[in-house]
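Hey, quick one: can you model this chain's 3D structure?
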Amino acid sequence: MKTGKRRKSAEPSKDPEAIALETKIAESLRQLSAKPSPIGFYASAAKGALRVQYIRNYWPANNYSPQVQPEDLKVTAAEVAEYLAYCFGEQVSPDQISEAQLWQFTVRKNEFFLDETIPFAEKRERERSLTAWHPIGCKYGPNGYDYRDDWYKSCARRCMELSAFQVEFVQPLAQGEKPKPVPGAVLKEIRDGLKQHIQAQQTILQELRRLRVPLWVQAGKEIKLLWPAEICFISSEAAVGLEVFTTAGERWPCFHPLASLEQQFAAEPDFMRTSRQHLVNLSHIDRVQPAGRGRDLTFRSQPEDIKARVTDSYLKAFLKRLGR
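Sure thing. Here's the predicted structure for all 324 residues.
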């Protein structure tokens, strides 16, 4: 009895466009800076007449978006926990996986299924877990297994951060049909998520305030404390020494070297050295005027004849800091 020839397994695509696209996707994921986790949308919103769609939160936009999620491609918390252990060796309890994170990984599983570089023959078994899909997708990566493996792991981490996909819930309505109210459970989850986000930001702000230290200046025989927000700029001129100009229109002598003050205010985002003689609080600048190869700066709380200087060697960094 003759047997048919064994079919060769599909090879990874060598298409230059596919390679270029995958390279851009991976590069986009690498360039994304750490961001606070956004408030996600939740599974409870998908009840009734609602259906879920999604778009990527990284470049490029998903050509298949908006995409309705097939029911047989849903994921479970246990499946996500298993996948995280596979990707990162991190043991996460299924109880720690939120509904919003489940939706992120549901979309991730859909992308495996929608990936045109994975042959259709590999997609007949829809019951595969995320852990099973991962090496299959890597096998057909145009840039090779390792490159796509890094991309997949980056997506998995962003799914945990709720920043890989924007999940939207759509409510299809017939003509003349009134929209159904948003379920109270959804509103509660969004409200609770916003509270947690605000609390986290407040904690960060409190920590920053705690780390701030005032500048000690000489006020006659006494010492005066100036906080960063009160300072317009600090000038170090050979004729008069170091002076601190304030938002109250005052100037105070100070006996610290300008270099040490630059280090003291290094954590203050608005402070910048603009010349060998000036340390400036950018938030109080009123005007920037061309002056030779540099710039002159005037301040809202100071007379127009009181200026700080941006010299040529500091100009490029100064303009970049101000978005020019």
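One thing worth noting: The longest strand covers residues 231-237.
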